[in-house]
Amino acid sequence: MITMTRDLDIPGSQSTPAIQSSWQAGRLAMQGDSYPENSYELFDQVIDWVRRYLKEEARPLHLSLALVYLNTSSVKAMMDIFDLLEEAHGEGREVSVEWRYDPRNERIAELADEFREDCSYPFAITPTAAPA
Fold first, then answer.
1. Is 73 in a helix, a strand, or coil?
2. What is the pLDDT of residue 51?
3. Which pTM value belongs to this model?
4. How sure is the predictor about 1, in pLDDT bands with cuts at 50, 70 and 90?
5. Which of 6, 42, 96, 98 fits a disulfide with 23 by CB distance 3.0 to 4.6 angstroms?
6. What is the pLDDT of residues 47-85, one digit of tens each?
7. Residue 61 half-sphere exposure toward CB, CA atoms < 13 A
8. E-state strands within 1-130
9. How far apart are CA 16 and CA 129, in angstroms?
10. Is 13 in a helix, a strand, or coil?
11. How many angstroms separate the CA atoms of 95 and 63, rounded?
12. Nearest to 24 by CA among 8, 2, 46
């Protein structure tokens, strides 16, 4: 797939997260639920974007997440992304992750923490303010 733009702007749906990237800012953001019928179709383009950014740019890359639920294949895709960041970090690249979550959703906080255990780069897990 050849695309003229370097940025992703994938609208979210009931079963897929909204995904936005900014090549210029070195940011990738994902928010929402992730249990797509075909996670490879969705995440392959995200993984390709991360891989290309890390190959072509020397600037930092920051991943901003507000994922609420991930099915097994989405977890696998996120592991692939985190592995790319870990490899880049090991080569001296500045990478970071911030995963924001609703404090009432302890399961996603636990999942984020499991991911963080395998990462040596900055990986923040931040509760969002609960609605009043």
1. helix
2. 97
3. 0.92
4. very low
5. 6
6. 999 999 999 999 999 999 999 999 999 999 999 999 999
7. 27
8. 9-10, 18-22, 27-34, 61-70, 95-101, 123-127
9. 23
10. coil
11. 8
12. 8
- Residue 45's Cβ-count burial label (10 Å; 0-12, 13-18, 19+) is middle
**β-pair partners for 1:** none
The pair of three-digit structure tokens given for residue 36, joined into one six-digit string: 């797509």
Q: Which residues contact 108 (CB under 8 A, 6 or more apart)?
A: 67, 68, 69, 70, 101, 102
User: Which H or E run includes 55?
Assistant: helix 39-56
Length of the chain: 132
Distance CA 32, CA 11 (A): 10
- 8 Å CB contact between 50 and 81: yes
Supply 55's token pair. 């190959």
